Amino acid sequence: MPYAKAKDGVEIYYEATGKGTPFLFLSETACDGAVWNLYQTPEFAGDHCVVTLDYRGTGLSGKPSNKYSTAQFAEDAVAVLDHLGLDGAIVCGHSMGGRVAQLLALDHPRKVSKLILASSGAAHPGDRGIPIRIATEMVEWGYVKYVRDHTIVVGWTEEYVRNHMNDIEKYLQVRMANLCGPEFYFRHVLARQEHDTSGRLKDIKVPTLIFVGDDDHFVVSDMSHRSGADILAKGIPGAKLIVLPGARHSYFYTEPEKVHGMIREFLRGS
To answer: Considering the entire predicted model, what is its pTM?
Structure first.
């Protein structure tokens, strides 16, 4: 199996498919890289070297029981790119992955040529730590049910769920197949909550595309992804914001052709 070794010796599982300009995809909170193989890897591997990885604590990567951070996730991504001998990657980060992507562009600019931030943000301005809503619902529902049900309600509108549950199940089969344990889910949530690049957005110098669904208002802590996208768009010089009508959080898996077309237009024009 393909592994890269992080600075602290943790083994990070990755997959690299295709040839061409590197295209790195970074998943949402506590989610391994397998979800990108549904649509994004097949779409872009024809003309790019598509790279996905399992964050530490998820999938097939090492799972140390210590503090995690988005900066550490970024360093792990650098270890993968270095292992593959890749610079100048297009980097697409979804949700927490967008936070990791920001740090790649800020702290490792040689690694990033273009940036795609999907339903992400710069900071959580409220209390640090595990949001009470997450902890309460996880206790009441149980861990596996919480992750599944939360993924659905955050990811798709009620109308979409009523009419397209088979499509959602196709995604959930992959998302839930190698679910990390509760310890690592919480370590990822803590890393996400402690992330703060709000004072550094002006220093992101690469062409940046920002996606968000116009109905991505669900809040588990203190700020919706919709609000976070506006902050990114205002803070990053020259950033382009695309608001997807009728969408929530998981448009990569329900409108892939539409989103892929917008990505390719951005890549051609930037």
So the answer is: 0.96
